[in-house]
Amino acid sequence: MDKVSIITPLYNNDYKYITSCADLLMKQVYENFEWLIILDEINPQVAGLLANYEDLDIKLITDKDVTNVASARNVGIRNSEGQSLYFLDIDDYIHEHTLFCLVETMKTSSAQMVVGSVKKVNVKPSYSTSYSAMLDRMLKNRHIKASPIKSKKMRSSCLNILYNKSFVEDYSLSFDQSISDLSDVTFTMPAFEKALNVVFDKDAIYLKIRRNDAVQFPSLSQRSNRALVYPISIRLALKLLEPGSKISIMLSRRFLYSYHHRYFSDIYNGDINDHRRNILIEWAETFREVNIDEMKFNRFIHKVEVKYLINNNFTTATKMAKFRSVIKNIKKVIKKPKVAKKLIYTSYLSRKSSVKPTWILYESFLGKNYSDSPKYIFEYLNQAHPDKYKHIWVFDKGRKELPFKSTQVKRFGFKHMYYMARSKYMVNNMRQPKWFVKRKEQIFLETWHGTPLKKLVFDMNEVHSANPNYKLDFYEQSRSWDYLVSANKYSTQIFKRAFLFDNEILEYGYPRNDLLYSPDKDKIASELKEKLEIPLDKKIVLYAPTWRDDEYYKPGKYKFKLTMDLERMREELGNEYFFIVRTHYFIADHLDLDNVSDFVFNGSKYDDITELYLLSDVLITDYSSVFFDFANLKRPILFFTYDLEKYRDTLRGFYIDLQEDGPGPLIMNNDELISTLKNLDEVSSNYRDRLDRFHNEYCELDDGLASKRISEKVIVNNK
Ligand code: C2G
């Protein structure tokens, strides 16, 4: 059987992917391959990491020529001994049958290139037995149809294509080393032009994993200035093609498409400074090289614009492009009035309107409720400094009865945009919208929403949540925060590292816990019980679980399946206990608790969980930060952690060892939960010391005055 040479360039910060890539290759059904890893410098660490993979034929190669990914791949080609070549990036993923399919198709079709399919995904898939069984079935039923490849499947990327090595040598195909990112096109396009027989195999799957930390570990494409390099790469590729050939025309048309759709704003946004002039020069140069008569311009005016560019008349080209984008925006606005509000905010209100020094804009949990630290800061300011400020609350649905006068605006409505642009102070417990424009007169107070148990942002390895750009977005959004509230020393250390945060952290305790120190707390609790029709003669259990990163319908809309058997709880504990069940604010599923309504109050829609803490005798949670706050009351805490291993080890990772240091027992199933609640006194006396220690460590700053400390520092005494 023919040997495949797998070529993988490897740079400094990519070492962390090396063993998982080796694991993938160990799993390949097709085993006759050598793996050439091309390094920019000799590194003993790499050899150490690969020491256990004796079964793989690994060649570590360094060469003085290796300066970028293009040269590394060329060195790989030169050093390869196989009959075919395959490029694999260290942080990507191939299914176990990928090589097998490609090699098999190449053999049966005698193709010079076999092109597999590439999908972009956010996280690596995890193998399951059902998946392996599916693969087995698929491999048995393969009907290889050697169909010639269509032009839209001719990717610029060299990945997941098996190349016949003699074909590559006969035509001296290589990557242009003068560029790094985007150099692929200088290899693939000539290859497609020269190859007489190219076949597509959809079963050979390659997963391109999007790097979720573009801030600390950007991929090559995330690092590079693509708007500048792209036209250069196309020019270099065109020079290698026959003028007027089918491939050359296809590439020219792709270039025009990218001009309109991918790079337009990078080319034309902002004033013509040196950076933008360089970009314009490169685009003009490439447009001069292509035959613009072969291009399909949608409108004559587009062609005129490009002609100005070609003639180096950058000012006129820019004016025309900007005019075009204004027209486009107007069309968008007519179609979608939502866009209009944003546009008026970003281009007018946030630039031209004046900032009002006494206006404060509050938002809690994305406008879902009147709660958390923003609520307590609002109440403090109203009590201590009545009539001094104008208070504006953002809510996503309808108006709410608040204890003090306030203006209420609908989230993302026009009034919201108006107050976002003009309020001097913003008090928010989550991230603001990505398009928020921070004005220099504005002060952003981020209260955050919990002492973390689950690893946060840059402390997370893989992001399993619905948004693949989570880390980059978080980084950019948090740059606008002037102050960040921390409830304890532990949180401060984590926030600095996990948010890469260098602005001021106010380690002042949590405003949201002030109520737990109110001298009237018992009275408040019993009045609330009456209001919510919660029995006065039963012990109240608050069950407040968190969300699961991998169970969602779409971003912000998460699923939740109730594992707690409430009917059994009622049967066994109904005489003594009454339950409040409260899901996390991300949960879109509405729990149907009608059949247990005499035993359970559905507190999911209740505004403020702090008030629910006050009336609860016991807290049950899983991995939610709620227990750090509830610990202020020194009442028993139980952890219903039926999916502990998955949550801790796969999804998130924890900062503290719940088993060793948590303030209560971990309970894995309904039986244990029932017996623990039946013996609650005994269990809580066993955990008394741990709860005390936990309280000392995480609650020492909370004393009922955090709202005061923070409001006075950030708002009242702000000069
Ligand atoms: N919360 C709630 N009801 C729940 C769960 C959470 O009201 N059933 C509120 C609590 O105020 C809690 C906050 O939402 O402190 C954050 O919830 P977590 O479950 O801890 O999850 P998350 O939103 O991911 O925040 O540093 C804290 C972390 O960011 C966790």
TrEMBL record:
Q: Where is the signal peptide?
A: none
> Where is the protein found, in the record's own terms?
Cell membrane
* Pfam entry (one): Glycos_transf_2
Q: How does it sit in the membrane?
A: Peripheral membrane protein
Per the record, the domain of life is Bacteria
Q: Which SUPFAM superfamilies match?
A: Nucleotide-diphospho-sugar transferases, UDP-Glycosyltransferase/glycogen phosphorylase
- Entry keyword set: Cell membrane, Membrane, Teichoic acid biosynthesis, Transferase
- The enzyme's main class, written as a single word, is transferase
Q: What is its main location?
A: membrane
- Tell me which family the UniProt entry assigns to this protein: Belongs to the CDP-glycerol glycerophosphotransferase family.
This chain belongs to which protein, by name?
CDP-glycerol glycerophosphotransferase
Q: Which organism is it from?
A: Alkalicoccobacillus murimartini
Q: Identify the taxonomic lineage of the organism of origin.
A: Bacteria, Bacillati, Bacillota, Bacilli, Bacillales
